[in-house]
Amino acid sequence: MTIRTPFTTLFNIEHPIVSAPMGGVAGGALAAAVSNSGALGLVGGGYGDLDWLRRELTIVREATRKPWGVGVITWHANEAAVDLALSFEPPVFFLSFGDPRPYARRIKAKGVKLVCQVQDLASARLALEAGADALVAHGAEGGGHGATRGAMPLVPAVVDLAGKTPVLAAGGIADGRGLAAALMLGAAGALIGTRFYATIEAIGEAQAKRALVEASGDDTLRTRVFDMARNYDWPMQYTGRAINNEFSERWHGRENALQAQLPAEQARYQAAATVGNYDVKMVWASEAIDLICEVEPAANIVARVAAEAEALLKRAASVCAS
Ligand SMILES: Cc1cc2nc3c(=O)[nH]c(=O)nc-3n(C[C@H](O)[C@H](O)[C@H](O)COP(=O)(O)O)c2cc1C
Q1: Taking a C-beta distance cutoff of 8 angstroms, is the pair 89, 111 a contact?
Q2: Of 101, 102, 58, 93, which Cα lies nearest the Cα of 72?
Q3: Which residues approach ligand 1 with their CB closer than 6 A?
């Protein structure tokens, strides 16, 4: 038996699990591994590097016959990146962080399903207006960029708003307990990011993946200092959750002081990133890293999360006294 939801039916997949389009981390190999194991794998097109996109989309398209998708960061996207991604005929297109309406028509005109990740009710309304086929209600617990609302109250509020449009939960989900809880909140599945970063197939240095295993959710923080150091001008409502390190320890809360020394600190960050010095270079990470015990193949995670959630849901009825 498998868990069937409106999302699995609409997207023609076996498990109600989607791997997040993590920029620079979720390449074609990870997306294909997730899709081949019965979930939906997404390539993380991030800021829209065309060469990177071309290479990774070629990989995923050749490596799976199952549904897969591609995502870009909406506020940073451009027509060239969207059109390049569409030329690979992805079954699913994912937009997050910004107004999806400028790209929605282009995407839907190709018969591609549109999924929009939203961080509050206002962005959920925009996504519905854009004609999204599914929404992802994205809580601040998640790794990487996000906003302020927690998944527990945001998910059911977006579900109520979305009506018949399926909603996935995201932010802080890393095992079957999280998926089962998401379904109880009314979601039709879960989008999972950080847990899939700690996989064999994810792009990323071994040291970063090891940090996801070794650190605790207590060690993470939402900050903008890494975006300042990397010279990304993210809109103010979004911060990024990362593992606290020497760089964030020094500058988080002192952004004005960082601004005053920005060229030197950007050069220091760039140098550290080049040699893999994680005292300075960041690792985006979820509060849910407490639940990550090893770096493993993505297929193991899909199978385990689905089986755990199914077992929990079957057991749930016994909680009610007769
Ligand atoms: C390393 C990393 C990179 C990410 N990059 C992107 C991105 O480029 N675009 C995007 O929409 N979301 C990105 N996200 C956020 C995910 O889409 C998702 O919302 C988040 O990972 C869910 O929370 P979780 O990490 O607790 O599973 C990223 C997350 C991580 C951990």
Answers
A1: no
A2: 93
A3: 20-23, 25, 44, 46, 71, 73, 96, 117, 138, 141-144, 170-173, 192-195, 197, 284, 286, 288
Per-residue pLDDT of 68-78, as tens digits, reads: 999 999 999 99
* 29 vs 130: CA distance, rounded Å: 30
Check: CB of residue 229 under 8 Å from CB of residue 267. no
Q: Ligand 1 center to residue 173 CA distance, Å?
A: 12
Q: C-alpha dihedral over 94, 120, 186, 33, to 10 degrees?
A: 30
Best substitution site from 76, 117, 145 to test ligand 1's pocket, by max atoms within 8 Å of Cβ? 145
Distance of alpha carbon 176 from alpha carbon 236, whole angstroms: 33
Task: Reduce the secondary structure of 40-91 to three states and give it as a string.
Answer: EEEEECCCCCHHHHHHHHHHHHHHCCCCEEEEEEHHHCCHHHHHHHHHCCCC
CA 72 / ligand 1 centre spacing (Å): 11
At 235-294, the pLDDT tens digits run 999 999 999 999 999 999 999 999 999 999 999 999 999 999 999 999 999 999 999 999
Structure letter (DSSP) for residue 290: G
| DSSP structural state of residue 180 | H
Pairing of strands 239-243, 144-146: antiparallel
Instruction: Please report the DSSP string for 192-228 in residue order.
Output: E-HHHHSBSSS-S-HHHHHHHHHS-GGGEEEESHHHH
Residue 274, number of CB atoms within 10 A of its CB: 9
